[in-house]
Amino acid sequence: MKKKQLALIMGGYTAESVVSEKSAAVVAQHLDRDRYDVYPLHIYPGNWYLEGEEGTKWPVDMNGFTVIKDGEKISFDGIFNIIHGSPGEDGKLAGYFDMLGIPYTTCDALTSSITMNKGYTKAILSGIEDLHLANSLQLFSNQKGNASLVLEQLRLPYFVKPNNGGSSIGMSKVKEKEELDEALDKAFQEDKQVLVEEFVTGREFSIGIYKTDGKVTVLPATEIISSKEFFDFEAKYSPGVSEEITPGRMEEREVARVNRIAEQVYLKLNCKGSVRMDYFLEKETGNFFFIEINTVPGQTETSLISQQVRAAGMTLKDFYTELIEEMWR
């Protein structure tokens, strides 16, 4: 069997590029080298390149996404995308690869761009049975009067977060109205749009979902118990700050309900590849509250998806092979 030429793309244009590089290192270790020739491509502003094991760099020709290495032109049969944030998770690269006719492992351009916008995603998902959404307000510019508008329409405490982006960068929990202006400024430093949500008290979970050969698979959920106020960047990536239990502690009835909702979210957003959905089970009622969806979730050894794949009895090698083969179907 002739091996396929696979570009493993990493990096990106945001602060999440560090996480992307770590994810790519893990993915590279678990790819099936009997099936694929793997080329690690780094994508940074004005600097796209293939890097060899010895550190040599060859530039990517962006006209056709090819590389000239040692006089030989390399083109790619497919893309394994592990770029968190822009341009890998917001649809920019998806549209570029669509124009070039190169398949990729993640969501298409439209789904990627919509799901990067937390407010728009929530609007699309409203109406799914048993899925609840926290009351929220979407702000489109950092201007005077925002705090008053929030205080008029929403009930404290709040989550204030950049409307686009991930890894909880720029996110704050606001308990008192005096904290609101600072939280809004912090979020607007990361994005031109900000989402303010009423805080939901409950147990926090994250769950992986993917589709192969027409079948949606929901992985075992992870329950997140953070020693911090919420699951922020430090809690996600600093050892010992959070406890992560996979599978999470849910009754069979809850698991069935969550899995049904997760599949409907995946299908309604027309997702592709592996995604991760975060949610709360409300403290008093047990109601399912959607938080957000990540269409390029982290893939480090300790990332939630990696934990969930192992809990499902799969190897990462088999999981990645399924994702890769799906893009050629």
Automatic annotation (TrEMBL):
Could you say which protein family the record assigns here?
Belongs to the D-alanine--D-alanine ligase family.
Sample GO molecular function, one term: D-alanine-D-alanine ligase activity
The record's listing under InterPro entries reads: ATP-grasp, ATP_grasp_subdomain_1, D-Ala_lig_Van_CS, D_ala_D_ala, Dala_Dala_lig_C, Dala_Dala_lig_N, PreATP-grasp_dom_sf
Looking up PROSITE patterns in the UniProt record yields:
ATP_GRASP, DALA_DALA_LIGASE_1, DALA_DALA_LIGASE_2
UniProt pathway annotation? Cell wall biogenesis; peptidoglycan biosynthesis
Record protein name field: D-alanine--D-alanine ligase
Q: Which reaction does it catalyse?
A: 2 D-alanine + ATP = D-alanyl-D-alanine + ADP + phosphate + H(+)
Principal place where this protein is found?
cytoplasm
Q: What does this protein do?
A: Cell wall formation.
HAMAP family in the record, alphabetically?
A: Dala_Dala_lig
Location in the cell: Cytoplasm
**According to its UniProt record, which cofactors does this protein need?**
Mg(2+); Mn(2+)
Which keywords are on file for this protein? Answer: ATP-binding, Cell shape, Cell wall biogenesis/degradation, Cytoplasm, Ligase, Nucleotide-binding, Peptidoglycan synthesis
What EC designation does it have?
6.3.2.4
Q: Which Pfam families does its entry note?
A: Dala_Dala_lig_C (PF07478), Dala_Dala_lig_N (PF01820)
